[in-house]
Design brief:
Distance between the termini: 79 Å
Structural class: mainly beta
Radius of gyration: 21 Å
Number of domains: 1
Strand content: over 45%
Helix content: under 10%
CATH class: Mainly Beta
Shape: elongated
């Protein structure tokens, strides 16, 4: 490599290092990187053991694409995993999209989310997690597990601060040997109390 080529590499690296300096801490690494910073078409592509950290959120995937001004949008595919370290929330998915400005994470495909602080594990085909509001929406083939309780539905809203879980779309809750069904079910994850509305039915074994 001649002096001119070395200079180009140094300038290139410094250029991208400056791009990732913003209001929050933002770092990255990968086996390969490519991209363009053309106005209105800002794209950076990380391939192979890719990793991005933004504040308390750490994301890993085979491919990570950063888009928009100040890398506002993050799109991860291939063996995606991540952790919101401060809140002890872990997740895995086929595809993840993250808006750094709105602080909203979307998981698509076979997805799971684990809230270790509240001892909740959830699975679904679509999960949307709002970091600031601490509200998570689950859709399609939803399964939630806590201690000896299992919840199933097609739609669920998890309010983390309030430790409340609202289920709809053919919801059913299995609690030890008991079974509860209704149009809508609310579970208090702090007490494990179950509240049901509409077409209520159940089986309780003594």
């Amino acid at each position: 490599m001649n002096l001119f080529q070395k200079s180009r590499v140094i300038i290139f690296c410094l250029f991208f290092a400056a791009v990732f300096t913003g209001a929050d801490t933002f770092t990255f690494k990968a086996d390969k990187m490519s991209g363009t910073k053309a106005m209105g078409k800002e794209v950076t592509i990380l391939v192979g053991n890719a990793e991005v950290r933004s504040d308390n959120l750490l994301l890993r995937a085979e491919k990570i694409e950063l888009q928009g001004e100040d890398n506002q949008f993050i799109d991860c595919t291939g063996g995606v995993s991540g952790v919101e370290e401060e809140k002890e929330i872990f997740f895995q998915t086929d595809r993840l999209r993250y808006d750094r400005n709105l602080k909203i994470v979307r998981l698509e495909g076979n997805s799971s989310l684990e809230d270790r602080k509240n001892e909740l594990v959830a699975r679904g085909r679509f999960i949307e997690y709002d970091e600031e509001a601490e509200v998570t929406v689950f859709q399609i083939s939803v399964r939630l597990f806590k201690d000896d309780m299992v919840c199933r539905s097609e739609y669920a809203i998890y309010r983390r601060d309030e430790k409340l879980l609202d289920l709809s779309g053919f919801p059913v809750v299995y609690k030890k040997d008991d079974e509860f069904r209704a149009d809508r079910i609310r579970v208090d994850l702090d007490t494990d109390d179950v509240t049901m509305e509409g077409a209520v039915s159940g089986t309780i074994k003594n």
